[in-house]
C-alpha cells in the first residue's frame, strides 16, 4: 500500500495499459455528464416516488420541531445531533409545507450526490463513478431518505466526499482545496452524527500515520480538527443541557440499547423489506428476496479491491473500502436492533469497489456481449425489487400522514388547540400536527413529572393518548374519554382530555 499513491497519481507502462483497457478511460477522465445524469435521475425518482402525500416520521418530527414555525420543540434526547435541523432551518423558517421541505431536500441530495462523486474524478474513471452512483442511488433506502429530515444519507454523502478529498490531498501535497475539503467533510459528518464521524476518522487517521508517502502533520491535523470542529456544538450542548459530556454519553448509550457486542446482521436483513426500524427485531424474515443484493456486496467489494490491485489503484479503492467497513461496525456488531438507513454511509463507500468489480467483469469477459447482457438483466431485476419495496414504504408514509391528520382534526374538535400539551402514545407526531407541545412523564423522552403534567392541565388543554388496552395514568383517570381514529400499528386509541379541553360546539355555546 505504501507504493500505491505514487503509481495511482500517474499510471505508466503495463499497469496503465491494463487500466485503459479495463476502464476505457485512457489517460484522461471523461466528461462529468454521466455523473450529472445519475444525480438528476436520483432527484427525479425522489420527487416521483417519495414526495406525493408523504408525512413526517417520528424522528423527522423531532428534528423539524426544533426549527419549525408553528410548533413547540419536542424533547431532544441525548444521542441526537442538530446538524440536520440546521440543514432544513432555511425552509422551515419560511413555510410549514412538508412538500416544500421534501422538494428542497430532494434537490439538495441530488446536488450532494453529484458533488460527492465529482471529487473522485481524478481518482477513478467517470464510468466507474457513474456506476457507483447508480448502485447507491438505486437502493430504496437511498431514494426514500433523500427527501427526508434524517441525518444518515447526509453522513453517507459527507463520508464519500471526505474520503475522496483525503485521497486527493494525500497524493498531491499541493492540493490545498482537497485538504480543506477533507476537514470540512469530516466536520459536516460530525455535525450530523458525531459517533459516525469518529468511526470515519479511524481509517483516515490510520492511513495518515501508517502510509509512509502520506505521513505528514497536515493530514493528521485536518482529520482531528474536522472531528473536533464538527462535534463542538454537541459537546457544548452536553454541558448546557445534559449535565456534562460523560453524562450525555452515558445517557446516549442507555437510549441506544447499551452499546456492546450485539451482532445485528439478522436485524439488518429483516429491515431491508421496508421496515424503517426493527426494534425489537424478533419478527419473522418473510421476504428474503429483498436482501439478495446484500449478500452480493462482500464478493463485489473483494472483487473490486482485487481489480484495483491489478490496475495499480490499490489505495484509491482500499481506503474507501476500509472506511465503509469501519462505518458499518457499530451497526452490525454493537447495536441490538436494525434499521436499513444505518448502513447508508457504508453502502455509499462500498459502491466504489463494487462498481469497479462490475466494470472489470464486463470488460474482461469473453465473449463480452452475453456477460454484459446478463449483468444488465441482474441489475434490472435488482432495481425492480428495490422500487417495489420503495413503493410500499412510500404508501405507508402516505397512509400514516392521513391517519395522524384525522387524529389531529378530532382533537381540535374536542377543544385541544394551542397552547396545549399531548402526552402518551405517539405524542410527538400528534402534538406537531395539532400545534401542541409534547411531554412525556417517563421513558427515553421523559421531560415532565406526572404532578407537573397535572399542574399544566389546570391552565391549558392536555390530552393523554392511550392505546392497545392500556390503562390511563392515575392523574387522568377521571378526565373526559374520547376515542380517536386508529393510528399506524396501534389499536384502541383513546384520548383522556383535561377539563380545560371543551368540544368546539360547547365552547361556542358558552359565549355571549
What is the gist of this entry?
The chain has helices spanning 4-9, 13-23, 33-49, 58-65, 83-92, 98-118, 126-137, 140-145, 152-171, 176-192, 194-210, 217-241, 245-255, 265-271, 292-310, 314-334, 344-364, 368-413, 427-434, 450-456, 504-509; strands spanning 421-424, 437-438, 462-466, 480-483, 494-497. By secondary structure, the chain is mostly helical.
Keywords:
mainly alpha, 62% helix, disordered N terminus, 512 residues
Verbal overview:
The protein has 512 residues and is mainly alpha-helical. 62% of the residues lie in helices and 4% in strands. It contains 21 helices and five strands. It has a five-stranded mixed β-sheet with strand order 2-1-3-5-4, covered by helices on one side. Strand 1 (421-424), helix 19 (427-434) and strand 2 form a beta-alpha-beta unit. Helix 3 (33-49) packs parallel to helix 7 (126-137) and helix 18 packs across helix 19 (427-434). The longest helix is centred in the C-terminal third of the chain and has 46 residues, at 368-413. It is globular, with a radius of gyration of 25 Å. The N and C termini lie far apart (84 Å). The relative contact order is 0.11. The model is unreliable at 1-30 and 506-512 (pLDDT under 50).
